[in-house]
Amino acid sequence: MSEAVLTQILYGGVGILLFLLGVWSFLIHAPLLRKLIALNVMGAGVFHLLVAVAYRGLQAPPDPVPHALVLTGIVVAVSATALALAFGRRLEREEPDDD
Amino acid sequence: MIDPLALAVALPLLGALAITMLPSAARTLGLLAALATTAAALWVTLLVWGGGAPRSELGGWGTPLGIALRADGLAAALLTMANVVGLAVSVHATGYFGATAASRHFWPLWLLLWTALNGLFLAADLFHLYVMLELMGLSAAALGALSGTREAAQASLRYLLVGLLGSMTYLLGVALVYTAYGSLDLALVAGAMTPGPVAWAAGALLIGALLLKSALFPMHFWLPPAHANAPAPVSAVLSALVVKAAVYLVLRFWLELCDGIATEAAGLLLGMLGAAAVLWGSWRALRAERLKLLAAYSTVAQIGYLFLFFPLLAATPAGPERDQLITALVLLALTHGFAKAGFFLAAGLVQKSTGHDRIRELGGAAQSLPAVTFALGLAGVALIGLPPSGTFFAKWVLLARAITLGQWWWVPVVMVGTLLAAGYVFRVLARAFTREPTPRCFVTDARTEVPALLLAILAALGMGLAAHPLTVLLGTGG
Questions:
Q1: What is the pLDDT of residues B227-252, one digit of tens each?
Q2: Complex ipTM over 0.95
Q3: pLDDT exceeds cutoff 60 at A99
Q4: How far apart are CA A3 and CA B250, in angstroms?
């Protein structure tokens, strides 16, 4: 097995592991912040996998397509986290005088 | 050269940007953008109608780097429905929101959502679909919380989180597809996929993520509060279009990517979840206290009917019968899109004029809002599936095919679902037409009423289903 494939399997496997940890954490924790961190861990896992797929050995340049996907994915994850946090703030603000 | 495919996606986006810059002209600009978008979408449909298969690569960047748009019959059918509903909702929103502050927030978000919907129907590659799914999820969640109440924020947050869980799962599926096949273009991937563990895993991730977004039982829990707490035009769009876009992708993946890969067991699983959705959604709709909650649970049920087609699709080889099933499925999806949008808009008007949407206290709405009640009734006809609505023909094909294939167990599900649908529609109409409080119990004098009931049940249900003994009795059964 070549060095590149071994690296891909190692890093890609870690990515899938991170994704599964994220899913587990998302499903069992109720607080919003923990759910959001879990979602971001899931995202990090997928990005990990994509970066691993792009790797083609030390000599060859990496595949640009998965890199473009990771960049877009990060932008989307940041916006989604921001919107969820805004909702969280909205719910927090009314907590004291909630009837 | 002007490209209608690009226009259908770009026009609502430009409209959203223009309104963000000039919020004082939100209503005029919004309506203009809605008209232009609908025109572009109808142009695309006309091209497909004329036998064309329009495809464009934006900016001249080819696959795999560029973003490609394409339209086929399936895409054009849903595009037309979505844009006609979108235009109707836009016109409605000019009156519903007026020139209030909510209007300034509604228009940019709604046009962004429209961009995402048109993008979803026309996208030709898996990653572009991911971006559009996220745009749809984010703008839909923000729209759902437009009323600013605590319940709405809570429901929208849950909707957003479930949507994100789906999106991340979808993205993992995309990563798997790219790893295995080195492409994201739908047509190229479809050609490269062969049955095996990788294809099954990728298909399960992609379709599983979309099931979460299409609120198939038991992943429907987020839908009723999110759809019932949004302002009526938003509920209409969420129930009629957003959920339908996810189902459209499930169908597209099932037919194109998973052709020959999806097994009958997978179809059976989708069908069983669909059957549970039909029964549970219809039952909860029948028990709902509020009109908009009823409509939201009815959406859960109607999505269930769409998934009843999948086991039949899996068991039918390619040919005219399979094409007829696909036609019926799309017909049902389009009919429900129009019906549910109309139902929600009408429910919003009831809520606006009476100040609440409690079904128990709807008494006399027909007298004060005849057109709205008529709209509720007409939409109800389509939801139940009375002829000549599209639902009737779709259910007819579904039942006929189920019986031909020997999968008779779907038949009672459809019948019970239809009966429950009739129950919840007539419950609303009955309230709307009476001022008097109705008696609390169903049977008031058992000895005199039960015989009458039994005779009626025998005539309505018994004689049709039990016609066989009659042929034996008359000796004509052969």
A1: 999 999 999 999 999 999 999 999 99
A2: no
A3: no
A4: 38
Distance from A83 to chain B by nearest Cα, in Å?
8
Domains by residue range for chain A, with CATH: 3-93 (1.10.287.3510)
Partners of B55 in beta bridges: B70
As a whole number of angstroms, the distance between CA A90 and CA B80 comes to 37
Q: Are B274 and B216 in contact (CB under 8 A)?
A: yes
Range of B133's domain?
125-433
CB contacts of B137 in chain A (<8 Å) are: 80
For residue range B178-206, what is the model confidence (pLDDT) as tens digits? 989 888 888 888 888 888 888 889 999 99
What 3-state DSSP class applies to A59?
coil
Q: Smallest CA–CA separation between A62 and chain B, in Å?
A: 13
Q: What is the pTM of this model?
A: 0.90
Domain count, chain B: 1
Domain contains B5: no
Using alpha carbons, select from B205, B3, B233 the residue that is nearest to residue A49.
Answer: B205
On whether residue B301 sits in a domain, the answer given is yes
Tell me, yes or no, whether B462 lies in a domain. no
Q: Encoding tokens for residue B106?
A: 């509604």
Residue entry with tokens 């009672």: B412
- Inside any domain, residue B88: no
